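Priority: medium. Attachment 1 of 2:
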């Protein structure tokens, strides 16, 4: 089964939703070995804390 993982900045000036349609315009990249997609969110300011999570299905 393919998974979707979002990597989002925690301490950014805006909140990032767990969606491909987040206001920051995250980029989807294929995970190694065709395991799923990784959405890397874009921070508006340099961030020091990031988190990865998989949306509930």
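Attachment 2 of 2:
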């Amino acid at each position: 089964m393919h998974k979707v993982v979002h990597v989002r900045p925690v301490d950014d000036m805006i909140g990032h939703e767990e969606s491909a349609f987040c206001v920051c315009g995250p980029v989807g990249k294929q995970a190694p070995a065709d395991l799923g997609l990784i959405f890397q969110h874009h921070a508006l300011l340099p961030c020091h804390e990031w988190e990865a999570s998989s949306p509930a299905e």
